[in-house]
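TL;DR need structure tokens for one chain.
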Amino acid sequence: MVRSISSKRLWKGLEPLIAAIVLIAITLVIAIAVTAWLLGVFRAGVEGAERLTILPNATLNVTGLTLNMTIINHATIASKIAAINISNCSVADPSPLLITFDPGEAKTIDVTLKDCKLFAGVVYQVRIVTEAGNTFYTSVVGTS
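>> reply
TL;DR here they are.
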């Protein structure tokens, strides 16, 4: 005689299995979303995010203490530079700090530095801070 398994007993065995599969699926979805966020996949879709690109043609003249760089605003909002830092030098002429970059606009700016000692052939990191508090970096080699 064959014993049949009651449907109530069968469901008792399947419920923990289904719960485990659902938990694993939720965990995978959360892990994929966090990974995508960390890698910046969703950055372009965030409305109002600043996206400045500093072109690699930046130059730094260490004898005249001048920094020349081209910046492009790829965002959908305007961006305004609040500070430019390079090797703890101060900016002699603050007028480049008043420049506003409209969406899609590219501008070349010249910055005169003071109170610093720079050397030719050394790679310096330039830090640009916007009024919104976002920071953008580029590297430039000092030339004489």
